[in-house]
Specification:
The protein has 481 residues and is of the alpha/beta class. It is built from 16 helices and 23 strands. 34% of the residues lie in helices and 24% in strands. Helix 4 packs across helix 11 and helix 10 packs antiparallel against helix 11. The radius of gyration is 24 Å and the shape is globular.
């Protein structure tokens, strides 16, 4: 590929001499002869500090957003945006050969993308998936490091999906990815908005900034799928004017698609889906109002992408659930153990309110708060857990290099706002062990925060930590059946 081909559609200044390019990268450690190095400013490191070094290693050019006075520098307004477009060009613009379907919001993205993939496969489509748990290229499963990959990795994956014969790609699009323009060079057939609640304020600082980042996705789509039950979803309806808007709701008759006669049980949800004058019965395997909202978002996204209603309803009814999302573990005990990824105030509220509706006995919640993340949400999470459960166990999540004891101290004031009994066990393994040993018949024990994750991030590194494995192993050792 030539440098001119790489820079197609990129806005830049200065005279550029064309040459052959061997690769592009934003990692100065990976620069080799005839590479193009894109200088990305980050929270901890700035690629501009390594531009001279990249040229000394043989880079054909460096892409910068401020003048460094270097030979072979290419000035652009924003290196994040340029990186996305150049990555797309480098892999032959694979996104243009695929129907991309995005999902953004605080909660529900993973579940919705899995439902969309299942519905599309019921329609006979070959589908790729990019998200939090893992990535899928048709039937091949690949690990996921980030919810939305780095632009070079993203377009490389899209290229592989084209080669595998995929027609559709369903993708979680995080606020971080939108802020960093990781999906630059992509156009979405549909983009769904789930909700916006407090999360990631360590990065975005304010809810308004968080919202504005989410809103960026709807400048890149043909169809916006918006949740009228969320105040930010209603705001988007008023502010979006560049694409077709489709609305859904579990409560409002004003939406284009609504759910009625909603019933919950431990086995899932039943509801009637109304689309205009048409009414369809849906039997869905995941319980809770938020699960019904997720099902609606997935259904409307697929309808907007051209899937017929009957296939959409069949896809929802045949879905077997999503790993780590209100997942009932096969414990064979007189009590029930559920693992869920809820790690924000709203996420915890949703899962606890859902479980309370069908719990025959106590609701016992084991949870922790993530390290090196927004400290202000810790007491909020603890207050919600203590208010909506009958017993709380405060432990660790992923403490990273922050003191687990300090994280617990941050959360404790919220725990004390209610009279719910609680226990603090900082070591998460020991906390799970204690919870299993002290569960009573008809209890529902919720392991919140880790969900699908099979690791825990500690100050010395990452360890294997799969809560499903741990629970089944501990129960086998304790022989408590």
């Amino acid at each position: 590929m030539t440098l001119f081909q790489l820079l197609d559609s990129v806005e830049y200044e200065g005279k550029v001499q064309d040459c052959e390019i061997s690769a592009i990268t934003s990692d100065s450690r990976q620069v080799e002869k005839d590479n193009v190095f894109i200088c990305i400013p980050g929270l901890k490191f700035d690629g501009h500090d390594h531009a001279q070094q990249a040229l000394e290693k043989g880079a054909a050019a460096v892409v910068v957003q401020r003048d460094l006075g270097l030979s072979r520098q290419i000035m652009v307004p924003d290196t994040h945006a340029a990186y996305g477009i150049m990555s797309a060009n480098y892999f032959g613009n694979p996104a243009r050969k695929l129907k991309l379907m995005g999902v953004t919001g605080t909660n529900g993205k993973t579940t919705i993308t899995y439902l969309m993939k299942h519905i599309l496969e019921c329609a006979g489509k070959r589908v790729g998936l990019i998200g939090t748990i893992h990535n899928e290229i048709a039937d091949m499963v690949l690990p996921a490091k980030y919810t939305t990959p780095d632009p070079l990795q993203l377009h490389a994956m899209l290229a592989r999906m084209v080669e595998a014969g995929c027609e559709y790609v369903v993708m979680e699009v995080s606020s971080h990815a939108l802020a960093q323009q990781r999906v630059s060079g992509c156009r979405f057939v549909t983009a769904a908005f789930t909700n916006l609640t407090q999360d990631h304020l360590d990065y975005h600082h304010t809810m308004e900034e968080y919202y504005q980042c989410k809103k960026l996705l709807f400048q890149l789509c043909d169809n916006a799928i918006l949740n009228l039950d969320d105040k930010y979803g209603r705001r988007l309806v008023e502010e979006i004017d560049n694409c077709k808007v489709h609305t859904y709701s579990c409560t409002s008759h004003e939406a284009n698609y609504t759910a009625h006669n909603i019933k919950f049980s431990a086995q899932g949800s039943r509801f009637a889906l109304m689309a205009g004058e048409q009414l369809f019965k849906v039997q869905f395997c995941m319980p809770g109002m938020f699960s019904v909202a997720n099902a609606l978002a997935a259904a409307v996204s697929c309808i907007a992408a051209g899937v017929d209603l009957e296939t959409v309803i069949r896809g929802l009814s045949e879905c077997a659930g999503v790993t780590g999302r209100v997942e009932i573990l096969p414990t064979n005990t007189p009590y029930t153990v559920i693992r869920d990824y809820a790690h924000s105030p709203d996420g915890l509220k949703n899962v606890l309110e859902t479980v309370r509706e069908f719990a025959p006995g106590r609701v016992v919640a084991l949870f922790g708060c993530a390290g090196n993340r927004d400290r202000t949400k810790r007491p909020l999470m603890a207050e919600i857990v203590s208010r909506l459960s009958d017993f709380c166990i405060l432990t660790s999540d992923n403490p990273r290099d922050e003191s687990p004891e300090r994280i617990v101290e941050d959360a404790l004031p919220g725990l004390k706002k209610n009279n719910t009994p609680y226990k603090i066990i900082v070591d998460r393994y020991e906390a799970i062990k204690w919870a299993l040993e002290n569960s009573q018949p008809d209890d529902i024990l919720i392991l919140a925060g880790k969900g699908h994750e099979d690791y825990q991030v500690l100050d010395f590194g990452t360890i294997h930590f799969d809560e499903k494995e741990i629970v089944l192993d501990l129960l086998g050792k304790q022989d408590v059946r």
